[in-house]
Amino acid sequence: MFEDMVTARYYEERLQEEYLEGKQPAFDISAGPIPGELHLAAGHEAAAAGVCRHLREDDVVTAPHRPHHVAIAKGVDLERMTAEIFGRETGLSKGKGGHMHLFDPDVGFACSGIIAQGCPPAVGAGLAAKRRNTDGVAVAFLGEGAISQGAFLESLNLAAVHDLPVVFVIEDNDWAISMPKGRVTDVADGSRRADGFDLPGVRVDHDDAVAVYDAAREAIGRARDGNGPTLLEVQVHRRMGHFMGDPQSYRPDEDSEAAQNRDSIERLAADLRDRGVDDEALDEIRERAHERVDAAIEWAKDQPQPDPEAAHEDVFVNPPSGVTESEPDFDLAGGDD
Amino acid sequence: MAQQEQRVERELTMSRAMVEAIAHEMREDEEVFYMGEDVADYGGIFDSTEGLLSEFGHDRIMDVPISETAYLGAAVGAAQQGMRPIAELMFVDFFGVAMDQIYNGMAKNTYMSGGAVNVPMVLTAAVGGTYNDAAQHSQTLYGTFAHMAGMKVVVPSTAYDAKGLMHNAIRDDDPVVYLFHKRLMGIGWMPAPDGPKTPVPEDEYTIPFGSADIKREGEDVTVVTLGLHVHRALEAAESLAGEGTSVEIIDLRSLVPLDTETIRESVAKTGRLVVVDEDYRSFGVTGEIIARVAEGSLSDLEAVERVAVPDVPIPYARPMEDEVIPGVEDIETAVRNADSK
């Protein structure tokens, strides 16, 4: 758990550095080596690490637009994920998806850039597991900003009424872009929403990875044993803006400071020290994580840019006649500018 | 446009021009309000509401939870009560989340009620790619909204047009979809080309829907386009002028209603039609424009070319996004092809 968390944190620190290259001093979203938007999850690590520790490779996870910590905890190929974020040919999606659209079917990982839209596919994965009589489990991660979406509420209901092996994990960081939680919902304890669907709801406060681990063990165990879904809400903190470049002028300084001061990684490190793990062992883990991340980033940056013509491939796996892949069926749109 | 434009020194970005029109209408009419995600304290992710909160407060510049079905449907309901909501869909790509409220409510309630109710709302949304945000945040779905009956669809390309069209949109008694291209807004973190920042009169003015604007006059080839690609076409025309090709550029400004007459008149003059669109190629704007000209002026047509996004979702990596979104060179090639026929 500690290793997953420090890997995720360091990974995002490195991504942030790379992302800002060429974007300073004037921020231009279309400049620099990493294309598009970048949503960082620093402060969310405990939720992913505590839950995914109980998952197998064949279990399914769907993540939202802020996916890196979940991907790392689920064991997504770090090199190919990084190559994807840099938009390279050998990336998980051949450079077509980018950081919000990472797919690694080898470890059952997918994500969506649209709020709450990972919930229905997780229900589908749970349905498949149940239909096939496996003991597979699906986990949908979402932010507390997503709890107002129909897709989330409908998914809770569908999973509940069919007793599907799904765990919904709300990462409550108190902010939906510029909207504080209090202006999104009157229900401060999001796990209580489970009552409306007659399924168990659990909330874990204080970014506490160990408490998440314990709660997730029960929820995932319940799902695996055929006893249906659970709603788990985990308090995390958003240490960054909503996306890189977000000036956060809507956010009180004290809130940003509080988020910086409450660090799930430091909390877990203290916990481990209390349990007799010495600093040297923790440093070794950190060092190993840093080496792995640095190697992945170096590897990714060395990967080739995709061939522009590859843009026409993968629209269909079985292209209908009249559509010639690799070669557009017209000669205009698509040049070399 | 030249006749309408007053002599003004003051230049605005497209976002400032939109906001000016909205503020004016809100001062004039208590029933106008703006709702959407991050539109109040943030001022709109694309500066579409920057500064409005301080004047109008949270009751009229309304932040909403991330629940498009609820708030777009609520805008439909408020409009049917006679209010004039402006509801912002942050990225047009998110429309699917609330498709029923848009397609089955906003667009149809006037008709289904036999005119007993109407829906005087404006749905604003950001469209467009060019900054590598991949397939769920980069679409330009002009054709999607223009295809279904019941909604007027407006696409400004300059600050001057953005203000005049916004005044019109808010005052219109029908639902209006107002699509603004992110790259034209003049946001600090997404530099715009020079074109969209134009002189904008301080006073109110309207630009009627269905009045296409000839942004450049020419004799040899007609280029019909809208949004960001007006500026790319202008750049292409400038370079083609050096080769001796005279290009006329028509900015549609609205898709519903569509100013077919201006297009046909231009084609009658040039005989050659190139349609440029950032939406998908098939079943979209390019096909519709060409069909309209063919229906009424087939004998005028000597050459037709279309430049659009091939039928692939917008890819993430830069080389591939550049491949699919029409660039200046693509437009130049199309014009040369048309001109040589």
Descriptive overview:
The complex is a heterodimer of chains A (337) and B (341). Chain A has a 6-stranded parallel beta sheet, with helices on both faces. Chain A has a two-stranded antiparallel ribbon with strand order 5-6. Chain A has helices at 2-20, 45-52, 68-74, 78-85, 119-131, 150-161, 209-224, 253-261, 264-274, 279-301; strands spanning 60-63, 109-111, 138-143, 166-172, 175-176, 179-180, 201-204, 230-235. Chain A is α/β, with parallel strands linked by helices and 337 residues long. Chain A contains 10 helices and 8 strands. With 341 residues, chain B is an alpha/beta fold. Chain B contains 12 helices and 14 strands. Chains A and B meet through loops of A and strand 14, helix 11 and helix 12 of B.
What is the CA-atom radius of gyration of chain A, in angstroms?
Answer: 20 Å
Q: Outline of chain A, from the CA principal axes?
A: globular
Mean pLDDT of chain B: 95
Q: How much beta of chain B, percentage-wise?
A: 15-25%
How are the elements arranged and paired?
The complex is a heterodimer of chains A (337) and B (341).
Chain A: H1 2-20, H2 45-52, E1 60-63, H3 68-74, H4 78-85, E2 109-111, H5 119-131, E3 138-143, H6 150-161, E4 166-172, E5 175-176, E6 179-180, E7 201-204, H7 209-224, E8 230-235, H8 253-261, H9 264-274, H10 279-301
Parallel strand pairs in A: 1-2, 1-3, 3-4, 4-8, 7-8
Antiparallel strand pairs in A: 5-6
Chain B: E1 11-12, H1 14-28, E2 32-36, H2 52-60, E3 61-63, H3 68-80, E4 84-91, H4 99-106, H5 109-112, E5 122-127, H6 142-147, E6 152-154, H7 159-171, E7 176-181, E8 198-199, E9 213-216, E10 221-225, H8 228-241, E11 247-251, E12 254-256, H9 260-270, E13 272-280, H10 285-297, E14 303-309, H11 318-324, H12 328-339
Parallel strand pairs in B: 2-3, 2-4, 4-5, 5-7, 6-7, 10-11, 10-13, 13-14
Antiparallel strand pairs in B: 1-8, 6-12, 9-11
Helix pairs in contact in B: 1-7, 3-4, 8-12, 9-10
